[in-house]
Structure formats: structure tokens, C-alpha cells
Specification:
The protein is of the alpha+beta class. The chain folds into four domains: about 40-360, Alpha-Beta Barrel (TIM Barrel); about 445-460 and about 605-715, Jelly Rolls; about 470-595, Galactose-binding domain-like (Jelly Rolls, Sandwich), CATH 2.60.120; about 745-830, Jelly Rolls (Sandwich). Helix content is about 15%, strand content about 30%. The protein contains 13 helices and 46 strands. It has an eight-stranded parallel β-barrel with strand order 4-5-6-7-8-9-10-11, surrounded by four helices. Strands 19, 33, 36, 38, 42 and 46 form a six-stranded antiparallel β-sheet that branches. A six-stranded antiparallel β-sheet has the order 31-20-32-37-34-35. α8 (about 290-300) runs parallel beside α9. About 50% of the residues are buried.
Amino acid sequence: MGTPSSSSSSCKALRVVLLLVAAVAAAVAAAVAGEVGQAPEGISYDGRSLLINGQRRMLFSGSIHYPRSTPQMWPDLIAKAKKGGLDVIQTYVFWNLHEPAPGQYYFEENCDLVAFLKEVQAQGLYASLRLGPYIESEWNYGGFPFWLHDVPGIEFRTNNKPFKFYMQSFTTKIVQLMKSEKLYASQGGPIIMSQIENEYGTYEMGYHKAGAAYVKWAAQMAVGLDTGVPWIMCKQDDAPDPVINTCNGLNCGETFAGPNSPTKPALWTENWTSQYQVFGSDPKTRKVDDIAYAVALFIAKKNGSFVNYYMYHGGTNFGRKSSSYVTTSYYDDAPIDEYGLVRQPKWGHLKDLHSAIKLYEAPLLLGTPTYSSLGQFQEVYIFQGKAEGCVAFLVNTDKRNNATVQFHGTSYNLPAHSISILGDCKDEIYNTAKVNTQLNVRSHVSSSKVSEDMWYGRMEPIPNYSDTNIKAKSLLDQMNTTKDVSDYLWYTTSFNYDGNITEPVLHIESSAHVVYAFINGIFIGTEHGSFKSSGLQFEKPVSLNAGENQLALLSSLVGLPAGGSHLEKKTAGIQVVMIKGQNNTSLDLSNYPWGYQVGLFGEKMATQRIRRSGKVEWTNAKDAKQKSPIWYKATMEAPEGNDPVALNFSSMGKGQAWVNGHHIGRYWVSFQTASGKASQELYHVPRSFLKPEGNLVLLFEELGGVPFLISFATVTISQVFADVSESYPPLMTNIKKLRGGEIKYLNPHVRLRCMRGKTISRIDFASFGNPTGVHGNHSTGSCHSNISTNIVEKACLGRRGCSIEVSTESFGGDPCPRIPKSLMVEAACN
């Protein structure tokens, strides 16, 4: 009953116009009168919001990390974020990328932070710069360069002189770079706030008094850099003034205790749009109605004025950049997916939320908030001012049951776990659970495969103890030995066997992620751990020669740890090696002399040199007999067109891949999930990595995968699906300007849109009535307009996008009076 009808739309349109005029006037008057506090030109804050040039602002932000995409992708990603209703782009700064060696800095290619921020500014958006420099972010070693580990006497993230020296040096370097490029808002640039440290409150107790001293030092150090914009600390309840403490989490409207000072605003720096994925796990998604509910609740209940989606575009963990067990694909279920395609309905439903909130920005930021209970699980938050107008949030916290509430003499129907936003405290303009944005169905099409004769292989040499140049009388820590230049470390030793151990079994205990065992050059088995385990145990029967035997163990890490206190003390690698037999007989090899080889043969030369080198013997891959490890290469043609590209690795096991010298990341297809699927089969290859033909694909395969089925695949939106009820509120994006400037509400619409370069080629289903089901499994109900398909085809076929009003007038009359109706459509894009 709170939904505007078509007959009353003109009157309510007039109220909207008057409200907008009043809101603008009120904001100007407030600034002149000092109602929101005096602020210099630039960025400040008060207890309600950030102040931009003295004006309170309601800001929506999204995380897009520049190294998880390419410079060629940045403009499109930022444009889609802006079109989705964002005001701010948030990014971490990645210390290990920018300072690979002490005092040596790198800001090229997809590490060009300045170019990224200038693109943000060019598109009219602000930036939130999370300096850290510890970032976590499921990023290798939490963003720390590994050389930091070897600084004498260092302890990370505490009141430690060596750590503070290097942290301050890097932070100062970034701030000076930003200043030199005039990128702070105080200089006319896009950066409106910066972050120092990251979620330290989670671990502060582990550092005792030194942790509190470190927090105070970090805040003073950052503020002293004089950026002219506010500093923040997320998940840091005791953030020292003037640093703002902010919230990270799924539902900061419930979990955030609030700012630690009445002079600070409520800011949400990480609203998780899904969850990162690890190898061996199924994707963990988050429905858009839950995200929208959390945002609306934070604004209503906590007076929130800044919400950042983590991630808005997750992207790709190229190379060896992800932390332990984390997949190459990162937050693919974000509003913009890994490939840069809009993920619907997540993107569109949040866009509509942003529009609804922005329409009532003035009462939200300048009005007086009040609260009332409407029932056991129902409540209302009202924001109203003398001149700013009124907006109300009707909240149903019951996660199972719908509710009907009375507010200002009108009944409103609230779905379970939903919030309705009432414009002018009367008209329902948005409900978090009423998703009337289309669903995009993503698919991929594989191109032709390379013939088996075109794949070449080369066995990775298995070293003996005498081949290695690093020797020790014990088992060394892998991280400290490799210095993170490789995922791989060979452990080798030799031992004599006199036959006194019957039925020998090789026993290995390791805190690494994977181990491969070879006896006398013969592969005998492998074992791996998981994200939830602290290590692995390996036990396999072995055949030994009388006399000397060579043992080679290839230990592999799938990323370094990224979180936890005392990160510098974390270790990994093989810890115990024994030959066990019957009757408690055994031979402990743990303290034998061991030889070590860091990395692999193929890693020691540039990938392009591998292709040309006459010294490297490549044979037809069909002749490769060894199960693991092995290098493969082939030359492949890129798919035509502009659609995103991936490599389909469904036939592979575990390893790493390069395309034209670009390291596209780690793959681990053989580590299946509980549902019996690979965590990831498609691996993103940005178009900028490719040539029209002659693309060198180079693989290091560890587990016996077969490359002959590998192909490039194009990723596209193949189908669109929508289900919109006539009782839904009018969307903000359906407010139509008519001639003369009048604003008119439109009835709810089904809106379909294919990706660029595609058109709607087929209507697979259409029903106006009471259809049931979801995408791919739907049917007409007891009420159905027989002309549904004709109406939709006429409006949509051959077009990139179309819009059909959900009303009886659009379908030639009411097919079944007194029955609530909706329009359900599924269409194909080609």
C-alpha cells in the first residue's frame, strides 16, 4: 500500500522536485551559517560525515586494486563503478610490488599507482588510499617485501625500531609521490582520505603494551606527513585523535560500536561483497539483498555516511601474488567480475540503492534522526529537518517472516530481512529484498585446441645431493631459504640402506603446502595440505637399493601467509624425514646432511629465452613418460573479437602458467572441492597480454595434467533473466525527465541489456501473470497473458537492451483480475 500508483505519480513527482530544491537550498544555507562546522577548502570531517569543501557528503566507494587488473582495463572498470553510483575508488598500496629491494622502487605497468589515481580523477571520482603498508588482502606476505624479514632485530607491526624505520620510509615515499603529482584533495587531486595500518585491533593484544605504543606512533607519524586529508584506521577501536576508527565486516550496522569520538563520522571501509576463495573450496557468494540490507541498516542505525564495497572488482592474482592457498581469481562475485563484466543483479540493485539514498542526502546528513519500534522485529528510523525534508527506513529484522506494519497511518508490507526506504516518509522508493534488476548468466566458449603434435615437453631435472650448491646438516626453513623468489625448494640427501628395515615406508612431516618425493630419480608420490590445516603428512612404501640411495623432495608453497600476529616468525617447509619399517625399525634422516636447490630449471631463465634456447631439449609432449614434474609449451592463436579471454585448464593438475612471458598465476585444478569440482578451471588472460597469433603458452605441470585439451576461451554474458512484480517500487533509474523538466515516476519495468557488441537474439521465456521458477527452470502459472512473448519480442529482439513496463496496459488488459502479477523474461544474447 506504500507504492505509488500510476494515477498519483504526477503529484508525487512534484513533491520530489520540491524536495530536491529544498535540499539544495538547505545544504547551502547550512554551510553559510556554519551549521555543519567551518572547514577550509579541501577535506575535513565532523561527527556526521566527511566534509568536502565544507559540505557534508554521503559517499559510496568501491575497492578496485590496480595490480589485480591491467592499465588497459582501468578506464572501463572505473567507468562502470561510476555508472554504478560510486563516488570513490578505494585501493591498497602494495609495498612488496613498489619496493622489491630496499630503496629500489618500481611503479611501472600495472604497478603504476599514479596513473591509476589520475584515471580515477579524470573520470570525476574521489580516491581512498589505504597505505597500510601492511594490507593483508589475501596478498603474499600481507604486502610486506620479504627482504624486510631479514632486517636484523626486526619485529613486524609493533614498537620496534627497525620496523618503524622501514615502515615510515615507505609511507613517506608514497606520500611524497602523491604530493609531487598533486593527488591529494588538498592540492586539487582525488585522494580524500588515507589509511595507516590495517585491522591492527584484531592482533593488538598479542603485542601487549608495545602494541598500544605502536598504534599511537603510527597515527602520529601519518598525521605528521601533512597530507591535508583525514587519516583512518580500520578495526581499531582506540584510533588516536584525529585518526578516524572505521568498521570492516559483513554487517557494520550491527557490529560496529561506532566512532570513538562524537566528532568523528561513522565510516565503513570494507563491506564484503562475497568472500575470497581458496583452492579446495567452493565459491562463497553473498546475495545482493543481504548487502543492500546491511548498507541501509548502517546508514539508518549508525548514521553511516561512507560505505566501501570490498571488493567492487576483485580481479586476478597474477604471478605469485596471492597468499596461502588463495585462488588466482579474486572476489569474482563482486559487482564487477574478474574479467571486468558487470555482475547482475548485484551491480544494478546496489546502483538503485545508491540513487535512492542520494535523493535524500540532505535530510540524512542535515536532519534530526529519531527511532521507533513498530513490533517485535520491526523498527523505523526517521531523518527529518525543517527545510531538508524527510526520509524513513522501515526495518524488518525477522529473517524468516514477512511483516505488515503501520506507519503514519499507512500499511507497508515488508519482506523478511528487508528495509524499505520511504521518500518524504511516505512513498516506498526502494526495498532491499525486492530485486528487479536482471540476472546475467555468464558462459564461456572455447576456441579450437592446439593439436597434440604442437605441444612440446621437457622434464624438470631431479637433482641429487651432489648437484646442489646449498648444504646444511639439517632441514632448513623453506621461506628463509628461498627468500620468496620461488614457490619451490628441492631438499636432497643420500643414505645407505643395508636391508635391516623391512617393508620400508617414507614418512615426511611438513608445514609447506605440497611435497613430491623421488627415490633414485623415480617419482613415488605426493601429498598436499589445505587452507584449514597447519601442514601435511606423507607416507608411501618405497623400494630401496642395497647401498646408496638418492632422496629428492620437491617442497611447494602456494603463497606465503598474509595474516596473524608476529608474521616475521612464521615458517614453512619439511620438518621430519624418516624411513620407517616393521617391528619399530626406522632410519631418521632429519639431521642428515641435506643439499638444497632454490627454484626450478625453467625459472632460472626468462620465458622467452626458453622458447629460443638451443640448449634446452624439447620433445613432443606425447612422448613424455614422467608423471611429474614437467614443462610444456605450445603456440596458440588468440580468439577473435573483444570479449575477455581465459585459458581453460580443466585437463590440468597443478602448476603455474605464462602467456607471452606474462605470469598469469598458479593453477590447481586437481584439488577438488567437497562438491567434486575444481575450485577454478578458467584462468584470466587479459587481452593486452595477447597477440593475434603466435602466443607462447608455457606451463609448469606438477601433477600429471594433460595439456592437449587446453584452449583459449572467450567469456561472455550469454543470457539475461528478469522477474519484476507490478507491486515493486519505482526504481530511481526509472525516473524519467519529460519536456519542460517535469519528473514523472514510471511503473516498474523489466529491463534487459546485453554486453557491448551483443544483441538480444532470442526470447526463451516470457510470461506476464504469476509465473514461477528461476533462471533455467521456470513455467507459467495459473495466470498468464497469451501475448507475453509477442510483446517482449517486439520490444527486445535485435536490440542491445530493452525495457518493458510491468502493467496490465502493456499487455492489452488484465489477464486475471485480483491476482498479483509479475513479468518474467529470459533472453539470449549473441
